[in-house]
# Entry
Amino acid sequence: MSAATLIAREEWRVLARNRAGLIASALLVLLILVASFTSLERRSAIEADRERYQTSTDETFDAQPDRHPHRMVHYGQFVFRPIAPLAFFDAGVDSFTGNTIFLEGHRQNSANFAEARQSSLLLRFGQLTPAFVLQTLAPLLIIFLAFASVARENERATLKLMLSQGVSGRSVMAGKLLGHGAIALGVGLPAFAVLIAFAATGAAEWASVALMILGYAAWLLLWAALGVVVSALAGRPRDALAILIGLWMVIVILLPRALPEAASAQSQLATKIETEIALHRDLLEIGDSHDPDDPYFNDFRDQVLARYGVETVEELPVQYAGLVSIEGERLTTQIYADAADRQIASESEQNAFVHAFSIVSPLIAIRQVSMALAGSDPAAHYDFLDQAENFRYDFVQRLNRMQAELLPGIEGEDPRISAAYWQQIPRFAYDTRDPLARPQSLLWPFAVLLGWLAVLAGLAFIAARRIGKSAR
# Structure
């Protein structure tokens, strides 16, 4: 058995006699398990509620009586975003972005009913999920277990004794890193087991689960290596503990909360009022599609008459007002789409600013990995908005075509078409985004985590040389 292995085994034996460490480890493992099962239960309950509400909304829409198609355009319908399979592990931005959109004609509404707006301010500190425990609390436990790993040997003079017996500084560092690396992975083992069990049921893709486990393994090993390296370089246990606690506060608490504020100051988003005013101004420029005689649609009317080869609107085989609604919807949709693209571009610019600082705060990197693989990152939210908008446009234009094509043959001041047509309109079915569809989004955060491990490996080598020189 190598010297490094013997040192690792001795480290485990010492920690096994540390009652406070055992209790803290047991509590953290228990917290991970509780967070996992409560998150799963919460996900199941929310998913069942959203399915029930979506079914109720669809049934209510289908039950509408005979009506003018344009009234159904304004009647609209609600769509709900299903929860991604691994979102129970990391809720990401889902609690802040909203999950319900009201789809109607001439408007592109935002998602509503974000949980953060209905919950206490504690939610902004962190929702109790396995990801929160591993990202925020697990590093504290690893620090507590590793801060005295080398400094303790130096303070008790047992380090010199080992060196005098022919144990090299490299063996000492390798043994300590091996021992605490195994402990760090043991801390994450309950969460990894939950992920594997979830994938075994077929509820999640194995590739996403494997990458999730790999990312968190790198995160936990990073803190184990940091604890051992600082312990070796600091000399005294209390100094090492103070440094490690300070690093935890900066990396985990301070920077992840200060950087978004700095990003907001650097690239400010337009307020809702400013956005609405700009949209209203743009909409005024295209005229009112509810008024077939609006002068802004004069050119359009001439094009329609020329296409059908007639002289007047009354000679058209279709209802001209319906054609105006189709054209008006196309124009307003483009205006709203451009505004949405500008908003997403501004938010992406802010996110890119924050992500660039993951070099100094690897918590940002593991969050990127975790949210992307869980399907709860901003990109997944934008994908939901995009799918909902595509469905809304198709839904509204179907009704507008019904108005144009079906109403000319119906007499009366209030022409209506059969309610059977509402039931023919397809229902919204969200196609869950594949988190691996954009692998480039995972390259940078994984590179940051591996880069930190590489730097710590270099510092461990330097510390091993210092330890070796102290024996001379």
